[in-house]
Write a structure and sequence with these properties.
Elements lengths: L1 H11 L2 H21 L8 H23 L1 H9 L7 H21 L3 H20 L17 H20 L2 H4 L13 H16 L7 H14 L1
Length: about 220
């Protein structure tokens, strides 16, 4: 064992290893310089995030306004939130304006703040107690007794459907799942909103960028 360790030490100190290490470092540096060229497209990530979040908040707002009474009853009853009607109105309005503002890239950083608050409240009051997973899973490090039991019941339900119905037709447009309602999706939206809060809407493809350019030009005149 000592002999092997000594051999490794001699190799690490050899000119051959030093030369190879320098070659690898040089290769990495050249690769980094090549990747630096991607900075010219730094406006793409915030654009993609905005476009990803637009339908999320739009549908959330539409569902709240479309089922206002039921949502208010849920807010005040199951969730125990104060002033449920006001809370529904504020949440739905924030999500609706958020979808519109994110689409055009207007006031992206400003609208990200109330959207972050809305998602944080949803994560804590609705999803936190169910753990991480949004869809119940019986496997993986994030599986819990709850999700394992849900997966077992899903298997039983599938068996009943396969035995008593046209299972292939029922699952033609997607497989059946059990909604675990964990914080997975809410946390994802929170992270994306934090990115927008820091980066803004991005160059070229947001109203914020062109408004900023216009006001800067006016100040320099």
């Amino acid at each position: 064992m000592k002999t092997q360790i000594e051999s490794i030490k001699r190799y690490l100190q050899s000119e051959q290893f030093v030369a190879r290490r320098q070659a690898v470092v040089a290769l990495i540096m050249r690769g980094n310089r090549g990747l630096d060229l991607l900075r010219c497209a730094d406006f793409v990530p915030p654009l993609l995030i905005r476009l990803y979040l637009v339908p999320v908040f739009w549908m959330a707002a539409v569902n709240k306004f479309g089922h206002f009474q039921a949502t208010a009853d849920w807010f005040g009853g199951s969730l125990g939130l104060p002033l449920p009607y006001l809370m529904v109105f504020l949440a739905a309005t924030t999500e609706l304006l958020g979808a519109i503002f994110l689409l055009v890239g207007f006031a992206v950083r400003w609208i990200s703040v109330p959207l972050l608050v809305t998602m944080a409240v949803a994560a804590v009051s609705v999803h936190w107690k169910y753990g991480w997973l949004a869809i119940a899973s019986a496997t993986g490090p994030l599986a819990t007794e709850r999700t394992v039991a849900a997966a077992e019941r899903l298997a039983q339900a599938k068996e009943i459907l396969a035995r008593c119905g046209d299972y292939e037709s029922l699952t033609e447009y997607g497989s059946f799942v059990v909604l675990n309602n964990g914080i997975e999706f809410a946390a994802t939206y929170l992270i994306l909103l934090v990115v927008l809060l820091v980066t803004g809407g991005g160059r070229y493809v947001s109203a914020d960028y062109w408004l900023s350019r216009r006001f800067q030009d006016q100040r320099t005149e």
